[in-house]
Amino acid sequence: MITPMSAVLFDFSGTLFRIESTESWLRAVLDEAGLALGERELAEAARALEEAGALPGGASPGRIPDELAELWENRDRSAEQHRAAYTGLSRQVSLPDPALHDALYDRHRTPAAWSPYPDTSEVLRTLRERGIAVAVVSNIGWDLRPVFREHGLDTYVDAYVLSYEHGIQKPDPRLFAVACEALGADPGDVLMVGDNRHDDGGAAALGCAVHFVDHLPVEKRPDALRPVLDLVAAAPEQPVRNGQG
């Protein structure tokens, strides 16, 4: 028997929102500090930061330094570990002022650093109109609620389940269970939407259906969330999987 879903869980970064480019991130922090780099130097520094994976929500690190390996694996369990992991990666890159590494981390936590995907508002609004409960389930080390408020999307979210607030990170099914409980939903009636097959796919162990979208720049992904509306309206009994990662 096919039954509609009662709730949807969304990942944050790469699913509903996308972080700014590494160059925009670095430029904003340099401007705030009253520092200037030539365009070539700025581009080179941004490229080095991107290769290091220093921007949360950006490119994955090309290599994790041995001294950061354990911290990196557990970075989303607390605010302190998250900051230490990413500033540790940032410090692999030489910048004009050592204080810039913490400033870069602080910048990525601001609403100005994030943009919703073009269809995020439409999809969240439509789910609300249909009476479908929504939770955001994120591996993160800081409070993302201000990002949703700043972009006028908080009214469409019923619960936020953030890894650092629970000391649990995806793919641990317990984090998805917290979200289902917060929404009063049976996992079998819940759809998890994310961009990471490993982390977000952990919801399947709880019995949730799972749908994946691509982690692409905002301008290159105009409507990947819209299929969620059809999946929620008529979801199969087995977990939904999309081959895109």
TrEMBL record:
A Pfam match: Hydrolase
* InterPro entries linked to this entry: HAD-like_sf, HAD-SF_hydro_IA, HAD_sf
Alphabetic keyword roster = Hydrolase
Gene3D superfamilies noted in UniProt: HAD superfamily/HAD-like
- Kindly indicate whether the keyword Hydrolase belongs to this entry: yes
Protein origin, superkingdom: Bacteria
Q: Name one GO molecular function term.
A: hydrolase activity
**What name is this protein filed under?**
Hydrolase
- Record organism: Streptomyces spiralis
Q: What is the lineage of its organism?
A: Bacteria, Bacillati, Actinomycetota, Actinomycetes, Kitasatosporales
